[in-house]
Each structure stands twice: as C-alpha cells, then as structure tokens.
Amino acid sequence: MRCFYLPEPDLCCGAVLPLPKELQKHLHTVLRLNPGDKVQFFNGFGQLATAILSANSAVEVLQVELCPAPLCSLVLIQGLPKGDKLELVLQKGTELGINEFYLTSMERSVGSLKSDRRQKRLDRWLKIVQEAARQCRQYHLPQLIADMPLASALSTVDADLKLLLWEESDVPLRQVLPPSRPQRIAVLVGPEGGISPREAEQAKKKGFQSVSLGPRILRTETAGLAIMSILQYLYGDLASGQHGLNDYE
After folding, report:
1. Alpha-carbon torsion (131, 133, 134, 139), positive or negative
2. Structure pTM?
3. Which of 27, 74, 157, 174 has the most CB atoms lying inside 10 A of its own CB?
C-alpha cells in the first residue's frame, strides 16, 4: 500500500483530514488514485494511518498504528559541506535511522547558507528528509536544525555517548563503545577540510571523545554514514529485522 507523509500532530480513527494541494495533485493526477482507494499516511511522530480517499480531496482514517521510539536515538552534528554532498548525508542518514541532524558551519567549511538562498535550501533539505523517511518507512521524522554555530550545537546536544570523528585521533572506535546500549549517541563530523585542532579541543571540553575509523581518510559524506551504520547495528534496530508497529489505541 502506498505511504505518504501528512503533517498532522495526531492521527485518530474516524478523522476526516484535508489533503495539502501538492499531495492532492500527486495522488490524483500523477498516481491516478480515485475516491475509495486506500493509502497510508505517517505524521512523523510514529503514527501510521490507513485511510480511504474521499471525493472532496480529503481522507478518512480507518486505522492507526504506533511505531515505538527508537531504542537508541542517533544525533549527527555535520560540518556544512559544499554542493550536493549534504543532500546525500540527509537522504542516506534518514534511511539509516538518524533522528536529529545539526548542520553547522565550521572553520574549514566550504559550503555556506547564503541569506538569499537560505530558505530555498532549507525547504529542499526538509523535503529530502521527508521523502527519504517515506521511502524507507521511518515513521519518526528526523529533526533538522540548520545553520547553528558549532559552539551552540555542542552545548545544545545532550547524549550518553558523544563521539568526535577526527583524522588525528589514534583511539579506535571499539575502545570507547560501551557494552550496554546508550539511550542517545551524538557524533560530530567535520566538513571537507576536517576538524581544526581548536574545534576538536572545543568538542572535547563538551564531553566528546575523539575516535578514529581506521587508516583511511573518509569523505565527509561517508564518515557519518559509516559510523551510524555501526552504531545502528550495535545498539539500534539495524540487525533486529523487526518493524515494531503496534495497533494504536
């Protein structure tokens, strides 16, 4: 059954909900769905609704299921890269189950959020996250916090385990990973030029442990995805094979 993102804070059985115009066009003009056809909607808060299309560009909710929150919440603080590299990070990171993205300009960042293009780029990034969540059926929509100074991001993010991916570190990842599952893990990844010594020291003062992913220097768009895959396998749902949907009452 086709599934779509519908930004409704609370989905409940029997509710009749209007559809956004863009979604109406996609359902009726592109997909050629008709009144009476069944579709699914998720609201980004873990609710998945089965609904039936009505004749007045609305849907009636027939059933609602609840997807529990992730066992381990993953946060990525990403140094702003250039070009479309960030789009790859957002798309694939969402597929891997990252729950929060913090985008920050760092000393060696080449990319930037220019004021004349800022809102347009933010809208595009949000759509990428929403579409990736729809495609991979991540029913808890990741949060996207853009253009936050590094110092603010380091102070804002709270986590049981904080990791700093730094090419100058000689500490292997396995040395700092706890045997029991953390509830929340934050990872800091630098832009193309890497993390400066000053920024690394700044992160360490906020509780981030510098680690290495081995002898190879990974690209900024690869490093975060690589470590998130490892963390999801060890502490998350990557290896469980379970969908985790329950009837919502």
Report:
1. negative
2. 0.90
3. 74
Pick the CATH number of 73-235 from 3.40.50.2300, 3.10.450.50, 3.40.1280.10, 3.40.50.300: 3.40.1280.10
Which residue reads 């694939």 in tokens? 92
Give per-residue pLDDT as tens, 61-98.
999 999 988 989 999 999 998 878 999 999 999 999 99
The full set of domain ranges for the chain reads: 3-66, 73-235
* Phi, psi at 115, each rounded to 5°: -60, -35
Helix (H) or strand (E) holding 225, with range, is: helix 220-235
Is the pLDDT score of 246 beyond 60? Answer: no
CATH homologous superfamily for the domain 3-66:
Hypothetical PUA domain-like; domain 1 (2.40.240.20)
DSSP SS3 for 130: helix
pLDDT of residue 249: 34
Q: Where does 177-215 have alpha helices with state H?
A: 197-205
